[in-house]
């Protein structure tokens, strides 16, 4: 089956620190990969996505590269801000199926 | 423009009761999805509609759960004989229906509590 594993949180960083949130996956079929973010009191929003190997998704200073050889899609940001505090979810969908399979989420807390 | 809306935002019911949860997708989106999110977990897929028909209902946990989308827009998730284990946030999402990497836009969710 399909599954997504992401690092457990919470991750606590100081403002301007470098962020990495690890995500690995298993998939039956060729996956597209996503990062969703849930800010406090808000709904899930797509942060970035990549649809084929070696693609890099980017948005709001966040980046993730689709690595087929390591089945990974790690999220990175060079300098986090307090406003980045949220829960981040890695997810995948496979060709022929629209359903998203999510990881369990990683809470990021950025301190001033 | 308006996003995905869900009503009610909170629903408290007693074990054994019937509940209906409503989702209004983004106008023009042909695909609609229901997910369930338990505390501390990621969303779990329940069912996906393309137009009026359920294209994939493989995530429905049992026959107490049913969903409809009679006119290809609004959808209702129906839960019969609710159990305490059904307590969760029920999320609805919609997309343009253009393929597997289609961006899904999520609503704020309905928090269901079964006492």
Structural notes for this entry:
- The complex is a heterodimer of chains A (112) and B (115).
- In chain A, the strands form 3 sheets. In chain A, strands 2, 5, 6, 10, 11 and 12 form a 6-stranded mixed beta sheet that branches. Chain A has a 4-stranded antiparallel beta sheet with strand order 3-9-8-7, with no helix packed on it.
- The radius of gyration of chain A is 13 Å and the shape is globular.
- Chain A is built from no helices and 12 strands.
- By secondary structure, chain A is mostly beta strands.
- With 115 residues, chain B is mostly beta strands.
- Chain B has no helices and 11 strands.
- In chain B, strand 5 (44-50) and strand 6 form a beta hairpin.
- Chain B is globular.
- The interface between A and B is medium-sized, with 25 and 29 residues.
Write a brief structural summary.
By secondary structure, chain A is mostly beta strands.
Give the tally of β-strands of chain B.
11
What integer is the average pLDDT of chain B?
94
Radius of gyration of chain A: 13 Å
Name the beta content range of chain B: over 45%
Largest sheet of chain B: 7 strands, mixed
Count up the helices of chain B: 0
Helix content of chain B: under 10%
Number of strands of chain A: 12
- Tell the overall outline of chain A: globular
Pairing-aware structural class of the strands and helices of chain B?
mainly beta
The biggest beta sheet of chain A reads: 6 strands, mixed
- Envelope shape of chain B: globular
What is the string of SSEs of chain A from the N terminus onward? Answer: EEEEEEEEEEEE
Q: Could you tell me how far the N terminus lies from the C terminus of chain B, measured between alpha carbons in angstroms?
A: 37 Å
- Using only C-alpha atoms, the radius of gyration of chain B works out to 13 Å
Structure annotation, total helices of chain A: 0
Structural class per helix/strand content of chain A? mainly beta
Q: Strand content of the residues of chain A, in percent?
A: over 45%
Order of secondary-structure elements of chain B? EEEEEEEEEEE
Unreliable stretches of chain A, pLDDT < 50, 5 or more residues? none
**Nearest-integer average pLDDT of chain A:** 95
